[in-house]
Amino acid sequence: MSENRVVDYFIIIIGALLLAACGGAKSENSTTIARPDPTIQIIASASYGNTSCAIKTFGDLSKGNLSCWGQFPDIVIIDEKTGLAERTFRNESSPVAMSTDANWTDVTIGQYHICGIKSLSSGERLYCMGWNDHGQLGLARLYYLDDFNNPERNTRNFYPTMTQVGSSTDWKKLYAAGEHTCGIFGAGDLIGTGELKCWGLNNDGVLAQNTENNVYDDLDSQNQTNLIRRVLSSDSTPVIATWISVSTSDNHTCAIQQADNSLWCWGLNTDLQLGLPSNSAIIQKYVTAVTLPNVGFDPTTEAWIGVSAGLEHTCAISAAKTGTTISTSGKLWCWGSNQFGEIGVSGTTSSISLPNSSPVNGSRNWKSVSVGQSKTCAINDLGEAFCFGYNASVPFINDRYPITAVAGRNENWTSITVGLGHECGVKTVAISGVDKSQLYCWGQQQFSQLAGGFNYNSYIPNLISNDENILVDPYVWKSLAAGGHHSCALKNDNSLWCWGKNFWGQLGVGNEFPASTLKKVTSEIGWTDVDSYFKTTCALKTDGSMWCWSQNHKGQLGTGSILFENIPTITNNNISDWNKIAIGQYHSCGLKNNNSLWCWGSATFGQLGPAMAIPDTTTAIPYSTVKLQVPGDWKTGKVFSGKYNTCAIEKIANNTTNPDKTVEDLYCWGRNKYNEINISVNLEVNTPSVIPKPENTLQWISASIGKRYICALANTDITATQGSLWCWGDNYLGVIGNKTHYDSIDFTSNASYEASRFIPFNTPFNVNTPNTAAGEKTMWRQVSAHDENVCAIKNDGTLWCWGENAFGEIGRGDVVLSAEPAQEATKSPNWVEVQVGDNHACGLQSQNGKTDFSLWCWGGRSFERQIGDLRLVNLEPKLIL
């Protein structure tokens, strides 16, 4: 559990960022919103335990704003009269500013405290917050009233905000762990170098001081002042030396001296973490040289350039030296405990007393290393990051890992820090042609260590967003589509953008890399419609042509083959008279301008219609790579596909009773296991079957198909744009909206179970919001059903969702199932469209009569990036730009 910050010996700031401010008239369509500002850069970061901090700058690369998140030091007052208190934490899910100014240059984190350096006109000053019960802040430990027996646990030793420590003005770098702090101060030849001082709890000699306990002077019985003192080489001899790299853990410290790049360690040595011979003392009370006999390190040709101390092991980097010139990367050496493979040695769990005779992954040079509790992460000279040891690899499958690459795009990393169950790293990202430093975190999230407001461990590094107010017009979107783990949207310039998971090329951008931000699908414009489901995307152009891409093993792209495509590919026959597309899991359908309906892809459940027979148990699963017509005269724009079903509205002239009236019926076909289509047939239906109207006066006007159920809107007027909502099919996870689900079903009675779970097509349930008066029907504008979640927009523009909600698809800020409509968290009345995917949802909002809309997304799994911004996961709707 070390603080694990790596001091880069050769970091030299060679320039400053010049910013030009341009003025101009404010567009009436513009609005001030919060979003990540690409001009922000990260100049320092730290992680310890379940806490992380970072310093961001907007131009001056020497100092910036300090923010922290995760577990914050806090206090619980037990007795107001005596001041008796206990230490605790509070969780902060978003970065919290530690001050209002932007003068911070460095930050470090201990178990119950945070310290930083401010660059002021008076010099470089030390500030700390949190608990000072062991003197770890460098402030006087205070008694409360006459309680001399327990000075630590009282309210006067807790500092809730960053407080100036002492009057020194020459602090350079800070290092903390457990309940102590160390810092480099004074003049040094290089940036961040100087003499070393330590203070706080001297557990196992970690401070290199001549006391076994707290470092303080006992001036009198009521006022104990902590000394911030130089480390010692003996009982009374301070080390007067310049240090270039320091790292401290809960019980040992290591550092590199500038004069000869020699490595020194002190503190606890029970697991041989000091790099000393195995017969050395268990505790090294003072600064002790690591001499490294009989290993592949030659001090005449190599020099130590970086070191990191963990709880029970240590790692350091040695670089080639020619005269006074030292390389910026080199060999990685680790020693100490190897219980979980944290020193990179396979085949043993025993501690190693000296750096292994072969460096870690000796074929590669390393630039920096960071060590935590039983795990190690390092960055090589290619900018790639690797981790090994306990839970060091992000999938968390077991407790021991070999050297494993960090997930996602493993490139351009410049530094990394290791916490208890999470890691954070800074990488260089090109934004608008300019390289910027951005902070990403990954790993466990139970204490909000990754920020972002989500509740899940993240497999992929998650950008720590720095929201600032900037001028942007978000009202640029026309329509959208949600696939299984990706989404696409049309802009008002008819350009098409996609984001999310991309293993099969479902984003259409020519590669298979996932995208956490929106990616433009080709440079072309002229797109008019888009639909997605599972791993398939199709879109229409202004000339009526249809283009599809992604997975194609069942011919669902309609290209005449089963080859997958990662760019838009025109469907076979080059037909250019399509007006609507509808995509299912492995099949697709489209309507032509002559009202004919065509389907292609998998016919496993009869979803292509009567042109292809339903297979029996001995027949190979059929599919069609060419389009097959579904007989009928179908209404323009009214075709709907789901996982294994297709529905469409057909226009039928009723000449016998009223030749002037058009009666429109909803037909469905495909899987029928849960009586979605026909109660007299047990399984699949490949013939379009009419869905009875829920009431005699109502007619179906639209539909949406979920995993094992169907929802549809009905109105007395076939031209209406809103109607009452009805759902039927399998209600196992509450998708029917009737307040029941598997937990509320009486499983002791099979009849009760069947009646509660399955809502047949001929008795659909009328879905209303909880506040709808008895006897009335909620009127809805649109419904989107997908997998085990449903969202719908009321006629007042509010958005309501229900179902499983395993990944926050309901958008109300939790992951709790809802068997009835629940309003999303923002309670906006401006929703105009919603689309639900497998684990996420997206929607469009209008404002003040605008004809173009803003884009919002929520839910999602962090490693699939469906949300469309760099937060990766949101439990509430978030604006996407």
UniProtKB/TrEMBL annotation:
InterPro entries tied to this protein: Ran_GTPase-activating, RCC1/BLIP-II, Reg_chr_condens
Query: Which terms in the GO cellular component ontology are assigned?
Result: cytoplasm
**Entries under PROSITE patterns matching the protein:** PROKAR_LIPOPROTEIN (PS51257), RCC1_3 (PS50012)
Q: Where is the signal peptide?
A: none
**What molecular function terms (GO) are annotated for this protein?**
guanyl-nucleotide exchange factor activity
What is the protein's given name? BNR repeat domain protein
Q: Which organism is it from?
A: hydrothermal vent metagenome
Upper classification of the organism: unclassified sequences, metagenomes, ecological metagenomes
